[in-house]
Amino acid sequence: MIDLMPRLDETSGEALYMQLYRYIRDEIAAGRIPANVRLPSIRTLSAYLGVSRSPVALAYEQLLAEGYVNSRPRSGLYAAELDTSASLEVQTEAAAERSAVSPSPKRAYHASQDEPFRYDFGYGSVDIASFPLAKWRRLMNRCLLPENSRLLLYGDLQGEPELRAEIAAYLHHMRGVRCQPEQIVVGAGTYHSLDLLFQLLREDVACIASEEAVNDGVKALFGQFRFDCRPLRLESDGICLEELQASGAQAVYVTPSHQFPYGMTLSAGKRLKLLQWAKERRAYIVENDYDGEFRYSGRPIPSLQSLDDDGRVIYVGTFSRALTPAFRLSYLVLPPALLARFRSRRHSYDQLASPIFQMTQQLFMQSGDFGRHVRKMRSVYHKKRDALLHAVRDAFPAGVEMIGADSGLHLLLRVRGDKNEAELVRAAAREGVGVYPASAYRLRPESDEAPTVLLGFGGLSETDIREGVRHLARACMENGIFSK
C-alpha cells in the first residue's frame, strides 16, 4: 500500500471528491502509482486527509468505473495496468488543467497519522455486530435459486415492484408518507438518488436554496449541477423562512426531522409556512429523511411529505442507517409531475441498485424482520447516545455544549475557548481520536461560532465511546483547548 499526498482546496469551486479523483488518476496515468499497488482504504485515506469518507468513496467509485483501479474481493483497490497511449492522453489533459488552475494549498484539517484512529467518531458508521447476518444470508440464498435467475439481469429501471410496495407500506406506517408504490424510484445510495433527482429538476430549477450546512456529498452535487445555491441561516427551529422568501429559489433542500449536522427539528409552524411557500411559488421541497427512524425523546416526528397536499415535496430516504451502507439501497418518492418526467425520457442511469439486494430487502421487510431490526437498533443506538452524553458530562467541564442529541447517530460538541477547530481536530488525532470539524459542512465559510466537532457514535461500542471521550478530553486539556 502507498501513501497519497493530494492537495485539496476547500475554497475551490471543484468538489473535493473530483479533486481527489483527478489526483489519483494522474498519479496512476503517470506511473507514479505503479500497476497492482494497493490504494489506502477509504477509512484510512479519509482519516489521513481529515475529510469525511464520502469524498474518498466517490473518488474511488469514479476511478473504478473508469478502469483506473481494480477491486479485489476482501483485499481492496489496486492500480490498474493502463495502455501507454491512454496514459499519455490523460497526462496531456492533466497538464492542460494544471496550467489553467493555480496550485491549491494543503488542507488545514488533516490527520496526523495514516493508520485508522483507535476511537473514530466519524459519521456514517453503523453497528455491524448487530446486523442479522444469518437471516440476511438465508433470504439472499432464496434470491439465488434458479427460479429467481431474472435477478442476475439489470432489473426494473424504477426498482423491483415488490420492494417498492414494501417501501410504500413501511413509509406510511413509520413516517406518515403518503404515496403509491408507482411513485417510488429505488436508487443505489442517497447520492445516486439525489443525482437522478437533480437531473429531473434542472430544467425547472436555476436557483436552489438550502440549509447553510449540509452533507459534503450534497454540497458536491450542488456544484456538479451548477445550481445557483442560496444558503439559508439555521435558527433553533430550522431554516430562516425570511431568507427563503427573498432567495428567488425554485426549490429548497432541507433535512427537517433532524438537520444535518446541527440536529435541530423544523418546527410545525415553519413546516406549514414552507409548504405554503412551495405552493405559491410552484417550487419543490427536497426532504432528505436520512435517519428518521432513530428518535430518542418525545414523539416520532412525521415527515414533511405527509403534510403535502399539492405534490411539492420530494422525499428522499435510505436503508444505510437502519441496515448498512454496503447494500447501496435508497429511494425517492416523486410527486406526479416529476414521475411523469422520469417515465417520459431516458436518463443517464440504468438501475444501479442490485436486484439481488432489492429482493433480499423485500423479503426482509415482508417477513417482519426489518421492523424488528429497526426497533432493536433504536434501542442499541439509544444506549450508545446515552453513553456518549454521560461520558462528555463526566470528562468535560461546563464550558462545552452538546447539540442535536435527540435523534440520529451523531451529535455536535462545541468547545468554548481560544483555540480553533483545526487545533482541536489535530490534538484529538494525536491521542488516536477521530473527530470532524462542523465547519466543513457549511456552504458559506464565514462563521463566528466556537470550535465545533461532529461525534458519530453508531459504529463504536459503549466502552470505546467512553474511552474515546476520555482521550479527547485529555487532548483538549493538554493542548489548552479548555482547562478544568
Shape category:
globular
> Within the largest sheet, what's the order of strands?
4-12-11-10-9-5-6
Count of DSSP-assigned helices: 15
Q: How many distinct folded domains?
A: 3
Tell me the radius of gyration: 22 Å
Which architecture name of the largest domain does CATH use? Answer: 3-Layer(aba) Sandwich
Write down the overall mean pLDDT. Answer: 84
The top level CATH class name of the largest domain:
Alpha Beta
What is the CATH T-level topology of the largest domain? Aspartate Aminotransferase, domain 2
Structural class: alpha/beta
What is the H level of CATH, i.e. the homologous superfamily of the largest domain?
Answer: Type I PLP-dependent aspartate aminotransferase-like (Major domain)
User: Helical residue percent?
Assistant: 40-55%
- Strand tally is 17
Terminal Cα separation, in Å? 42 Å
Poorly predicted regions? 84-114
Reported for the largest beta sheet, the result is: 7 strands, mixed
Strand portion: 5-15%
Protein name: GntR family transcriptional regulator
Family: In the C-terminal section; belongs to the class-I pyridoxal-phosphate-dependent aminotransferase family.
Domain HTH gntR-type: 14-82
Pfam families: Aminotran_1_2, GntR
